[in-house]
Amino acid sequence: MRVPTLKAEEKQGKCDYCRRESQSLNSCSDCRKAWYCSNQCLESHWKTHRLYCLDPIELTTADRLALAAFTGSPPRDPDVLKDFGFLRAHVPSSRAYLFDIFRYIFNQGGIDPRVVHQFRLDGTLVHCIQTFYEAIPEASRGECYSWFLRNQHLLMPPPFNDISHEVLDDDALQHTLVVYWRSASDTPTEIKLRMQAWPKKSNRCFQIHSLLLRAGFRLSPDRPEWLQFGFCGCKSNAEETKLWAAYLKLVRTVTFDQFYHAYTKSSLPALFSAHGLPVTNNFVLDILATRLAGRNLSGISSNLR
């Protein structure tokens, strides 16, 4: 990409890169808002200045994330949130830690956003973040890196159809309704109005059913259902896969009312067993059965993350 030159319109002040006082600063020829004492300073500052100089449509999502990091304001751009894992981080503290990871990379590390952009495109962003932080003394890495090591999945290409950032669309609502109520007569608007009157547990059950019916989709720890339906109790990916498969078989066997009744009565383990799908993991049983019935799962979430 072309680096602008200096425009001959001298003024006195500090160079925007080296910060030295000069009697003959010249402005960036493109934006005429930044002032430099030499072309060398302009070229050295370009990796940062370009974020403010270029037309916004030329900026990548990594560029826009860097701008957010420089200002200290969490990103709001939908594409930035999607590309860098924020939409998959449903817990507010997770979003804050994720932002801290990038703030340190851009602010203290001085990493060029173009490099971060390429890492993301190459699918190597997680590895490169680890390499960057491992080169820092352990005492200086901060809590965000410890969090990152437990939540790398947020930035990894998902091994399934990732819809974790989506609200259930109209087709998904109708499909789920057809499967369990055998009726397609209700419009999406009518379905949504009906759902607004449901208790929270009904909506949770409807949500997990809708996700289960999405071909190729699997839960990841950033989904609230990962906690609500016991996946946080699994000790390995293999156990999570087995539990997911059991749920998938169960919802295709029982009615929605049977599933909902078992969930509200903390008797999902019994429902699994009744259909030849026993759950043997004690922690999962604790979550699904009476010992954790009615408890706020946020405490579990904080311990697991």
Automatic annotation (TrEMBL):
Residues 15-53 form the MYND-type domain. Keywords: Metal-binding, Zinc, Zinc-finger. The keyword Zinc applies. It comes from the Eukaryota. One of its GO terms (molecular function) is zinc ion binding. InterPro entries: Znf_MYND. The keyword Zinc-finger applies. This is MYND-type domain-containing protein. It comes from Rhizoctonia solani.
